[in-house]
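A reminder from the course coordinator: this example appears on the midterm review sheet, so study it carefully.

Given structure:
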């Protein structure tokens, strides 16, 4: 029988290492990991509701509110009443928020390049492609 890491254990280990490596990049921009997750989710477009945004990033709505408050106070996103339902808030990135996401992502890509530097370029491309497909399928 083939001996290898269980996928869950391997992903968990890599996730811990990547989060640890990315944290200084995010900290340099004054954002936390959950802040970046929220900003990144909004990069594709405004979230019609805070509940939908919470589901998209995998964060409980009650824990999302303080993140949104913090990001809005910094001018990185805005919450406006939904014209169709004034009880609802539409959440969208500001231009400053877009700039922060782009800058964070550029720094994270540098961290990723360092992490994958020892991997053959062909294998690296396949690894990233397969990982992207698995992440998309898990949504």
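Designed residues:
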């Amino acid at each position: 029988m083939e001996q290898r890491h269980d996928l869950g254990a391997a992903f968990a280990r890599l996730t811990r290492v990547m989060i640890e490596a990315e944290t200084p990049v995010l900290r340099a921009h004054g954002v936390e990991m959950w802040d970046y997750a929220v900003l990144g989710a909004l990069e594709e477009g405004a979230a019609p509701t805070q509940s939908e945004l919470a589901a998209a990033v995998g964060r409980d709505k009650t824990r999302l509110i303080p993140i949104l408050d913090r990001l809005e106070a910094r001018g990185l996103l805005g919450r406006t009443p939904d014209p169709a339902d004034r009880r609802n808030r539409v959440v969208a990135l500001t231009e400053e928020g877009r700039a922060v996401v782009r800058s964070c992502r550029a720094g994270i890509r540098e961290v990723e390049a360092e992490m994958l530097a020892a991997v053959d370029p062909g294998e690296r491309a396949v690894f990233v492609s397969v990982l992207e497909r698995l992440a998309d399928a898990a949504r």
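The beta strands are 77-82, 85-93. The first helix runs from residue 7 to 28.
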